[in-house]
Amino acid sequence: MNKRCVRLLAGLLAAVFFFPSGGQAAHAAGIGGAVYASVTEPEVEDGKPEDPKDSKTEEDELLDSDNPEVEEKEEDLEDPKDPKPAEEDSKPQDLEDPDEADLEDPKTASDTEPGTEEKPDEAAPYSEERPDEEEPLAKEKVYIKGSVEVQITAGVPVHTDQEFTVTLGGAGTKKAVLAASKEEERIPSRTSVAFSDLEAGSYELTVSTKGYATYTQTLEVDGLSYRVQLYTGQAKVGTDSAHPGLMAKGDANGDGKLDERDVDALVDAIESGKYEEHLDLYGDGVVDLLDLNYLSGVLNQQIKATLERFVPLAAADLTVTKGSIQSGSPEELQEGTKGLVIASSGGVISETNPAEIAFDFSKYTEAPKMEQIVLDAPEDKNRVVTAGSVVVVTEEDQPLMGEFQFGSLMSPVAARQSGQLSVTQKEDGSIYIDLGGQIAVKKIVFTIKKASDAGSLAEISKVEFVNDMAGRIPEPDLDIPSNVTAEPGNKSFTVSWKKQNNVTAYEVFVTSEGKTESRRTVSESLTIQQFQNKEMVNNTPYEVKVRSLNGEWKSKDSESVTVIPKPDGKPPAPDRVKVTGGYRCVDVRWSRMKDTDSFNLFYKEEGASSYEKITGIEGTFYQIDGLKDDTEYEVYLTGTNELGEGPASLKASDRTISGLVAAKLPAYNLINTSEGVGKLSAHIVSATFGGGNANMVDSPLDSEENSALGLFDNSYNSYINRNDWDFGGAYPDGNKGVTAQLDAVYEIGMITLAQPMDVGNYTYVNIQYWDENGQRKTAQNVSISQRTSDNRKYYLIKLKDPIKTSKIKVAVGQYSGKQKVTIAEIRFHQYDSLENDILGLYADDLFITLKDGVTEETIQELETRLETPDPVCKELHPDYTALKKELETAKTLLRTEGLGGVIPVDAGITASKNAKIRLGGVTTIQPLGVTAAAGEKIVVYVGNPGMKTGSRTELSLVYTQQHAESDGLSQSVDLKIGRNELTVPSLLSTKVEKGGALYVQYKGNNPDDQYAVRVSGGSTFPILNVYRVSEEERSRRVREYIKELKAYVGDLSSAHGNLHAGSDNASVKYDYEQTTCILNMTDIVTDYMMFSVPASQVLSGIGSSGQEETLLNSLEAMDRMMLLFYQHKGLTDSFAEGTSSTVIEQNHIPYGYLNIRYMKMFAGAFMYAAGNHIGIEWGSVPGLMNCVPVTSDAAGRYQSGRYFGWGIAHEIGHQINQSAYAHAEVTNNYFSVLAQAKDRNDTVRFQYDKVYDKVTSGAVGYADNVFTQLGMYWQLHLAYDRNYNFKMYDNYQEMTKNLFFARVDSYARNPSSAPGNLQIPGERDQALMRLASAAAGRDLTDFFTRWGMRPDSGTKAYMEQFPKEERAIYYVDDDARVYEMEHGAQGGFGGKDVVTSVQVQQSAGGDMTIQIASSAPEEQIQGYEITRVFREWGEERREVAGFTRTGTFTDPVSFGANHVIAYEVTAIDRWMNRSNICSSRAQKIEGSGRLDKKGWTVETNLTSAADQEQDADENGPCEPAKTPAIQLVIDGKTDQIYTGSASEDAYVILQLNQMQEVAAFGYQCPGSRSAITRYQIEVSTDGENYQMVQEGTFKLTDGSAKVYFMKDGKNAACDAAWVKLTAVGQKSIQAAEFDLYGPSGDNVEISEKGIGILSEAYAYDKNNPKNTIPKGSIVFHGNYEGNPAYNVVVLYDENGKIVGGTDEEGTLTAHQIILADPLTEEDAMLGKVSNGTWLYWFEPTDGVHASELPKQVRAELYRVDDAQTNEGQRMVSDTLFVTLPKTLPDLTLGNGG
Predict the structure, then answer these.
(1) Helix/strand/coil (H, E, C) string of 19-55?
(2) Please, which contacts does 1479-1483 make with residues 24 or more away whose CB atoms are closer than 8 Å?
(3) C-alpha dist (Å) from residue 66 to 62, 72, 815, 980
(4) How far apart are CA 1407 and CA 1488, in angstroms?
(5) What pLDDT does residue 1496 have?
């Protein structure tokens, strides 16, 4: 960047001469023209320069001590009738006096003759002259002493406390601390200091602090209190005549001034990228152009404060004349330290009981003058004065009176007042008393007659007596933004509002889901595309409010508006549809889907031919009612939005509940047998309920309060209803539950109960009873389970230890707090020892060992009892099936002395040990080899030596669903020691088999725990567990597994027929389908992975021959690949001896494994990673079983083998990503490329040419392709890892020494282990830059900057502690790293001259072709970096053009038309070292100014039939991004026309991805019928704040049009990184190409023959003889194209200095004119140029001699957007250097017209 970029060309456009028709316009600047006019740079308001005539008043000119005209103007102010000079009769012309003329009383001013000032006794409240002190009888004179308050207010954000030193000459020095700003405060941070008891006289005020220009002002003090208001930044406060002073920030060198040296220091900091807090003028954490822009705005400005004048409050004798002081004191009020709280004489303050305070000035010789009295309101709004009176006694003892009564605060009630004084009250309660002019006051009496809410206390927090109203600086009255509207877009919205007054900026607040963020803008609209650093979500409401800002002043918020962004495509199919049957209804739930406004629900009765449709459902739940009892209903959904209806979801179904249908309760050993429906059962004497919120429903037997006989009447019409989830089961007390009195004592072993309808699931039970002695007890070892019979559910409560009682209380509850408790029938069953006798056969909790003495006869006897039905009801035992299995097990054990199916639980697989490695995605579930159907009853046996039966364990049983949706995979239940009777839950409702594999999970942290598990029930399937076993054991287990697998898969179909198709369990009663049958399942566990996939697909994957080897290879490949990944994450199980336990805990391989599961895909996915599993589909399973381990040599060089596809590694990457810097779809791909890259460029997924395009583009932000962005991470690996990709290391220490990302991730887990004081911020890019620099031991600022990342101040500070990385590692690739490893670390041609020539030639199309010759060995050359070199403002400016691997490079530089360009080429060797630079000759670019489109991207609301939406696959497993056809409009071709449509006005946003100067827009659409007609073009520098630069109608000529940008009605170029085209009123458009153009084709040329000494005078304006170049002038002459109204020429020498230089004031020594025909406004708008000549000369009197001229000169042509303000100044053309003749020739010019 050139330091002259902040200086203006004011003065070079100072004079305009128009000649008669046919003549020329000459623009000239004489000696008085200043090249550097930052002194007079106008203040900026809303981004527009202030009119020059408003920028400085005449008084300001008088105050400018450097202005040569001051003396002359002062003379003009003298009174023509008074021979004395004006200054003799008035006060000195100090900095306060100029305000006085504007501030005086209008009535007084009208009596003063024009051109004169008032005499001191008229203009000021006190004369400097005192009465004659020699009068012998004169009374002692008493005068008021003065005081000065200096108040400093934040005009820019204050991020840390700032201490100011305030010195008042002769009165001392004080410190003032400006506290850090608080976002929630509307009033800016403010501080003040005061100096009191000041004698009359002059005082010099000085205010200083670090980083600010020292503020000085001379104050004349004379018996008043003076306030100096200073702002630390420009704010719209006050008026032209009454305003605060400026404390200007930006003193970079600490000399207390703001000048060009500070500009240079700031520019140096920007160029170096070094952060220095005192140069961060905006306080935003970076030093950049914003700070430079601020400094330019305040440079050399001397804004002095208007003095505010007050009568000192301390001068008054203050007394409370009525009432009493309750808090504070008169002295504290006068000192300003505390308010005064006053009470009336008694009770409420009223008209008859007022409080009164008096201020007496009568002791003074001269009564003080004042215009207004201000009484500030207190913070306690209950003490605000709302009614009273005021009496002001004048110097003539005349009373002025005022009565007032106000409405309540914030009330629209107007004040009622009367009398001579005007009394008003502000909204905050402050009272303003206007005296009607400046009046001498002896006394003031303020009577308080009412306080807020008729209180008894009133408070006055502050009192001011304003001496001079015109000088009072009002606080800004900010308008609240009005007409706030928000227009939705796709994942965005644009909020707009009406322009407000007194505003420097606006702040927009966006709130959604309880979170709020704000953004600032200077325009009246803002487009928002992100919220909380994420893209906005369509169909989500956002609340928006806006407030005005004025510096740090803030208005109240506007009324809020709500906006909902809308999508640009149809919605996806709804996911995760779940149906739950209810009574004559089904509840349907599904996932919230993106881009979906509402849902359509389709349902039908099973077997029906058509669906019913329900539309417009906005939530994710719907209850379909009015259905039939006990009927299966099928459901699916679609999503809709404004663009139409999306695809259908999967179908789901469930059965409605049978309402009030009797459940089939067991009658086995029933005590309370039925006496008939509606009649009380036998043996029940009474029944009651308690606990509140309960009542009996439809029960004729229960007429008495709390009676519950209806629960024993054999009728389901009568039932109890409790409006709570618990009825004493979970939280038992003395009343909750149902108590029954039986007619005798019975031994009860079982209780059954049923609901009137099946709702919920009771999981809590509590049984209490009264024993034979009447003692109340709680039964122990009680269990409850849900059973099903004939599609009705009931509950079986078992008492392991029977109870004997005649009175019993039953209490239940359920897990879900949403359901209520209902019971229709309760039955008691006599104890039968059969179950306990059968279970008593076993000696252990796993039921795998029989007790001693068990014989075949014992088992036979129990079997006979089990087969014997109840003699009354003829029913078998309710648990007949389970008990039968137990007897069969006992028989097996008796015959074989052993039983399979026992699974030992590995206590080393536990999540509790993984907390410190911070790794997600690991599962710790262990397979049991059992699959069970939903609704199936199973028994899980748990054993552990030393633990008692029934004890709580650290185990959970995990149920899963085969082929589940991502969020419906599993559910768990805790297990106890011994026998656990369980019912498998249903986890989905789609019309497929329900159920799946069972797992056990250990949750403890004791490696010595010895749990074992056995499952009775379900169906077994083959599992292969080779977790941490030896190779020999692994081989053996694989061999056995394959045998079992082949037999199992071969029998799948018949097994399904036997177990499922013929089952009465509706969950699995389907025809066999291998993709959904829950029997088609296997689990394979390796050291680092578990596969949970269909068994048939595993068998398919291992093929028909060599199956054992194939499977072993695949398992080995997975483990080796995972180990490779873990090593690059710094995780291992091997540590050097002596490694601390802390290091091991933070860096070990996880105790567990990842889990790849057969899952159902959601919309757009091919694979996915979620929670604790990776989901794959049917077709992906075989590929997991046929991989081959990669082998490598000792250095890790690939030799053979192949790992898994890109997609599997991609999803694994999601699971093991380091969260501190994880970038979704990018960093996870590091593992994909690691698994496939073979140290060659052709084995990586991304393209290095695109990487080089990115790192040479200068664009900020990520690459537009995730694979290109991946290159950044891969290059870090290549730059710092010095072994081949597949190298493995023996231990943690070796691993972190040799692997870059092993260090990165280790530091992320433990920042204290990193060098320096590493603090990891929450923002991922900043975290990555710090971690990477720590891992590299290098400052990687250049590397990350090349990749478009910008470190914040904290990151810069951390990175700078390391040596700078000197290598150009952003050019490294795989081949280069291999070359370096093979040829040694030292080598190459760094710092040598190896580029021998650079030849440049411009093609007909405008591109520059660079041919490079080199002497370096070709094999050592990585490539060449090409840098463009321009000259601007006399200095060189460089920008990287690109990188090429060959000796040829093409640079599309049409954007640089009419500029001189040279190229510098640096060769990069294979070690990433740079050679010395070789430069080309400079040459001038010819072209149209069209900008290069490299690096551009496009955003639009259009969709097109040509948009490519690629399906997810192995290479793109997650939902791939669309490839929109809109990219055609920037592909540089016109043979393909893009056609698109939208639901609203079509728009296209060109994202340039870097700041560019743009002046025109080009549109091509040959032969189109849907060309864009009406258009609007906007530009933005940040992608959020847009400014309109042109609107109109395209007029196509030969299919193309070009329009030029405008600003404030003038042709203008704009800085832009985003350009938005809106087709107004068109929803469908066509376009072949969009182009952007730089500034117009202005051109300047210089001629060697046009340099010489003028032999005779040249008059360039015959109408004005003064416009003549005198004889003997040194003249430079050349040709010109442009707009003479906006151009100027400057000459520079070979050293970048202006030819002739400037004087001390920055005034150009030379003179210059442009002679050209003036352009019409229309021609200028069309970008036309005028041809002419220019002259640049030195007159003989200028003191420039030919001998002093440089050897070479070149011309630069500048253009501005506004000739008055020089806004938008820029260089638009320049010339090559021209060598001056040794002796300048004589030159003759023809005279002008």
Answers:
(1) CCCCCCEEEEECCCCECCCHHHCCCEECCEECCHHHH
(2) 1479/1398, 1479/1429, 1480/1398, 1480/1399, 1480/1400, 1480/1410, 1481/1400, 1482/1429, 1482/1776, 1482/1777, 1483/1400, 1483/1402, 1483/1776
(3) 10, 13, 85, 97
(4) 11
(5) 83
C-alpha distances in Å from residue 681, one per residue of 295, 664, 670, 750, 1169: 96, 16, 11, 17, 58
Backbone angles phi, psi at 1741, to 5 degrees: -80, -5
Per residue in 1448-1469, pLDDT (tens digit) is 999 887 667 888 999 999 999 9
Q: SS3 sequence, 586-618?
A: EEEECCCCCCCCEEEEEEEECCCCCCEEEEEEC
Residue 1488 binned pLDDT confidence (cut-offs 50, 70, 90): low
Looking at residues 1149-1176, what average pLDDT do you find?
90
Contact indicator for 1219, 1323 with CB cutoff of 8 Å: no
Q: What is the DSSP letter of 1219?
A: T
Report the C-alpha gap between 441 and 439 in whole angstroms: 6
Among the listed residues 1057, 1056, 1097, 1101, the one whose alpha carbon sits nearest the alpha carbon of residue 1079: 1056
Tokens of 540: 């989500």
Q: Phi and psi of 1633, rounded to 5°?
A: -160, 145
Query: Which tokens in the block code for residue 1742?
Result: 């200028």
d(CA 1654, CA 97): 52
Question: Could you tell me which residue, 539 or 935, shows the higher pLDDT?
Answer: 935
Closest CA to 1765 of 6, 14, 5: 14
Rounded to the nearest 5°, which phi and psi values hold at 436? 85, 10
Alpha helices in 544-594 (DSSP H): none
Contacts of 68 (CB under 8 A, 6+ apart): none
Give this prediction's pTM: 0.65
Taking CA atoms, 765 is separated from 730, 751, 776, 960, in Å, by: 7, 11, 17, 26
The 10s digit of each residue's pLDDT in 59-71 is 333 233 333 333 3
3-state helix, strand, coil in the chain (%, to 5): 20, 35, 45
Which tokens is 167 given? 């010195």
Asked if residue 1490 has pLDDT above 90, the reply is no
Q: In the prediction, which pLDDT does 1516 show?
A: 58
Q: 859 near 894, Cβ under 8 Å?
A: yes
Q: With 0-12 CB in 10 A as exposed, 13-18 as middle and 19+ as buried, what is 899?
A: middle
Alpha helix locations (H) across 1696-1772?
1721-1725
CB-count burial class (<10 Å; 0-12, 13-18, 19+) for 599: buried
Strand 1082-1085 relative to strand 952-960, pairing = unpaired
pLDDT digit string, tens, across residues 1496-1516 = 889 899 988 887 655 555 565
The stretches of 85-129 forming alpha helices (DSSP H) are 86-89, 97-103, 106-109, 120-123
**Tokens 């190409």, residue located:** 1633
The neighbour count for residue 466, using CB atoms within 10 Å, is 21
Say whether 277 sits in a helix, a strand or coil.
helix
Q: Which pLDDT band, with edges at 50, 70 and 90, does 131 fall under? A: very low
Sort 1783 into a burial class: Cβ within 10 Å, 0-12 / 13-18 / 19+.
Answer: exposed
HEC readout, 1341-1385: HHHHHHCCCCCCHHHHHHHCCCCECCCCHHHCCHHHHHHHHHHCC
Beta bridge partners of residue 204, listed in sequence order: 218
Q: For residues 145 and 197, is the Cβ–Cβ distance under 8 A?
A: yes
CB 153 within 8 A of CB 374: no
Residue with tokens 């070690």: 1471
324-327 and 431-451: which strand pairing?
unpaired
Q: Tell me the C-alpha distance between 1317 and 1314, whole Å.
A: 8
Lowest-pLDDT choice from 266-280, 551-565, 741-755, 1387-1401: 266-280
